[in-house]
Structure formats: structure tokens, C-alpha cells
Amino acid sequence: MKIEIHNQTHEDINEVEVLLRKIFKPVKEKNNIQIIFVTQIEIQELNKKYRNIDRPTDVLSFINDDKDDKSLGDIFISLEQASIQAKEFEHSFEREIGFLAVHGYLHLKGYDHYTKAEEEIMKEEQEKILKKANLERS
Fold this sequence. Notes:
alpha/beta; Collagenase (Catalytic Domain); 4 strands; globular
């Protein structure tokens, strides 16, 4: 799987890029994904426009409807929200970024968490991928 990473913030994401490539390297996927890092303001605008929720969020995924394109879709991640949540959940920033990227990827693959059963399946898949990158829950 090819990962295209775009940074729409002023943050240095070199280490984050290395981390994401490590996380997704063992994932067997024929399609590509785009991961876009955005500011709190940008993710809030996207959240309001596409989900009618006027507040920042951590990650948003948008499936690519163009079947001729080799892209599953786009994953938008707020670096600032990831940092806040890493502190809140008392784990590393790397774990949080990895979790958000994998969570977004699984949404693109059709996983969801509307029910407890769906949530358990998605959580299990997330942890499988993160474990391979040594980013298990502490």
C-alpha cells in the first residue's frame, strides 16, 4: 500500500511520517491512502461541513467513490487534538497518531463502531495492526 502524507500545518512531521510508514508496511492492501495533517481550525471546519458538528475532532475519513482511482480515500488528522488526547489517555503521542491513522484506515475499509459488536471487531483489528508496530496499549 502506498501512503501519501500531506502536512497542512506548520509542525515538523518527519518522525510522524517514519512512524506511519512503519505501521502500514505490513498491511496487505492494493489501494493507496492519503493522510492529511491539519490544524484544529481546519478539522473543525471539516467536521462542521461534513458531519454538522461544530467542534474539533481527532480524525475524519472520507472514502474515495471513484472506482477507477487506486485510492481508498483520505484521512484527516489533527496533530493538536492527537497531542491533547495522548496526554488525556496517558500514552505516547506516537501511540495516539498511530491509533488515529489506523482507525481512519479501517473506516475506509468499511469498519465502524455504531454497535458494541462492531466496536469490538474494529478495536481488535486496530490492535492487531498497532501491535506489529510495537504500539500496544500500555
